[in-house]
Amino acid sequence: MSNIAINQFLNAKFPNVESLNSVDTVIHEIENTVADLSNDRDTNSSIISEVDESEANKFLDTLRAYVKFPTEKALDNLNDMIDKYGNVPAITYTRELLEQKLKLIKEAEIRKEFVQILDNLNDFEIFELNDLTNIVTSHDERVKVYEKVVELRNEIDSFKKNANTATFHIDVNTSEMFEELEMKLSDLVGSELSQALKKALTEAIDSWDSEKANEKSQTLSSAALSEFGLLLGIQLKAIPNHKLVAGSPSDVTLWALDCLTDKFQKKFIYHFEGNGETNRLDKPEFAFSYIVGYLRKNVEYAKVLFAANFARCCSGKISGSFSTWFIMSTLVPLKRKFKKEISLLLETDNSHLLSHFVTEVKKFDEEIKQEFAFMPVKGQEWTGLTNDLILSRDVVWNAWLQNEKNFVNKRFEEVVNMEDAFSIDYDLVENGKTKPTKSAINLKNLLEGITINYDSLPLKFQLKFLSEVQLKLLNFYFDTLKKGVNALKSIKHVQLDGVSTLERICRIWCSSKYIIETMDKWSNELIFIELWQSLNNESKSETTFFESVINGYEKEIMSKIPNLIQSYFERQLNRTMKDYFQANNDWTLTTEKESSNDELEFVILTLSTDLRYLHTTVSSETHNSWRLLLSNTVVSYFEKNIALVNIFSPTGADKLEKDVNKVVYSLDLVKSYDHYGRLMSILDVLRTGKLDISDENYPPVDDSELEMLLMRRR
């Protein structure tokens, strides 16, 4: 008979424990099988040769006994037989039958044990817990309760161990059975019994935290400490320790520690959940300050009285120090109060109340963490009431985020629409650096205030603020500045509405430059580095969070400014050079006129004023760059409007060179090779009629230009 056939046979004939009572029938079948095997001398000659008829009967009696009285030893003996005689069907069949019966018996024992423990739990409820008054008044009765809880806990743990090591005939969910027993014990102890036990302890330690108690005693009576340890022990035995986790979302606390804060909690309810003046929706800080004040006064004193006893009862069983569990019990009424009031904050039309509440919650969390080193889960920062009351509730979080968006958007409109929004502030930064506008300063302050608002939040909430609030404001400001750039392109005057075009250009430049410098600085701050790395899954990155925004500012705004500056300088030259053109309309002079070139003084004075303005407004680097730009603009202006459009004598060429140099030297401009050098080469051709290729200071003119210049000589 194959193993599959045996299994089918067993499952059909023995589906449960009761069916094993028909074992005699099975033994009869085994006897028939053995008889058949005895007739088959070819297959079992080794057995027939070794045993006579008496031995065969003895062998069958042994198999019959193993099945009638199944034990693990009998199973071991059958395995020994198989080792000795081989896989004889009668023996292997008996072993399979025995294994099946042992499994069914074990299953029956487990179920019986489960039912027995349930009965014991019910008896505990009916007989031991029928008189809670007696338990409150009698320490001996409370000790009996503790001993009974310990006994029940041991039974449940033993059941779990037995169930985990057993193998069953059919699938049996022992985990559900174990959880049912644990739940039953937890419910029995955690309901009315726990209240009775807490009442007894509260009476035993009454007034431990009164002002006089702090001054008088550093010890408690042995009876009070005994009650404290007793209640701790009962909870640790009744409640699975894996559920007693400090800082867990379930807000679990230790009953004994709740008793220590009982009087405080009642006072808190009186002050902050009643009709008193201290219970104000707009002043959550009153309640927070009350909690902090109590902890400052009592945490250390409570440790002196109770921490050693706590350690003896809890060490190695649950995580969290005495101080941690004490603070958690103290926070219970605070959480209860604000969980009720959150709905009121959401319903009110005054959005400031919710924002103020969130600010105070975050301040409280930081105060508790910093002052009391509060870390319920070792190695993990406490997420605080901020998480419990705000972040874990989508409705509250979304309402707060929307409030912040509305506030900063309104504030942004105020920032950019102030009358002096784009006036330049000359006092904030040192000389030699770009002076910011007031709107740029205010925007920076607004953005940094937002960062402070979320820097203590978990990563995903920080990203939400950064992407939906800060980056949007930076884009709004970008749009504002870009509109300014486009408007400047259409201005054809050097002054409009009493403000010079140069100042208008610098306002855009200074605003953009200051914000770019601010973003560069932020890019090196830890909070933004971590946020960027979290998005890129890299420990190091060549790019930064603000790089794309900075690139936008530089490409669409900063890169347009030099052209605007050049256009402004050209308009200044057009405006100031009129007298010079009138006085110098003939460059074919044979002798140079005696003249002081007063016509250039106005040009020099005007441009020097512009340069002084730039010197005090933009950075030294930018000022030097724009001085070079002015130099090239001035030289190109003389080249295009005079040198390349007039007829020159050598004397006229000399005069123009002197005039150009007067402007360049008076303004202390840089003489660039490409522009100044080119003009000098042109004037040299106009003066001499030939190209001096030996002068390496100036670039040579090409052949077509040379031909044109020679035609303009006289």
What does this structure look like?
With 714 residues, the protein is mostly helical. It folds into 4 domains: 3-104, no CATH class; 192-392, no CATH class; 398-544, no CATH class; 577-711, Methane Monooxygenase Hydroxylase, Chain G, domain 1. Helices cover 73% and strands 1% of the residues. It has helices at 3-13, 23-39, 41-50, 53-68, 72-85, 89-128, 132-137, 139-165, 174-204, 211-216, 222-238, 255-260, 262-272, 284-314, 322-347, 351-372, 384-391, 394-417, 438-454, 459-489, 501-523, 526-536, 547-556, 561-576, 578-583, 599-617, 620-643, 650-666, 676-688, 703-711, and strands spanning 495-496, 499-500. Strand 1 and strand 2 (499-500) form a beta hairpin. Helix 21 packs antiparallel against helix 24 and helix 27 (620-643) packs parallel to helix 29 (676-688). It is elongated and about 150 Å long. InterPro entries: EXOC6PINT-1/Sec15/Tip20_C_dom2 (IPR042044), RINT1_Tip20 (IPR007528), Tip20p_domB (IPR042042).
Strand content: under 5%
| C-alpha Rg (nearest Å) | 47 Å
Biggest sheet architecture: 2 strands, antiparallel
H/I helix tally? 30
Poorly predicted ranges (pLDDT <50, ≥5 residues)? 1-23, 40-51
Sheet/helix structural class: mainly alpha
* Arithmetic mean of pLDDT: 86
Q: How many angstroms separate the termini?
A: 130 Å
| Strand arrangement in the largest pleated sheet | 1-2
Share of residues in helices: over 70%
Number of strands: 2
Task: Indicate how many domains the architecture comprises.
Answer: 4
Shape: elongated
Protein name: RAD50-interacting protein 1
Organism: Pichia membranifaciens
InterPro entries: EXOC6PINT-1/Sec15/Tip20_C_dom2, RINT1_Tip20, Tip20p_domB
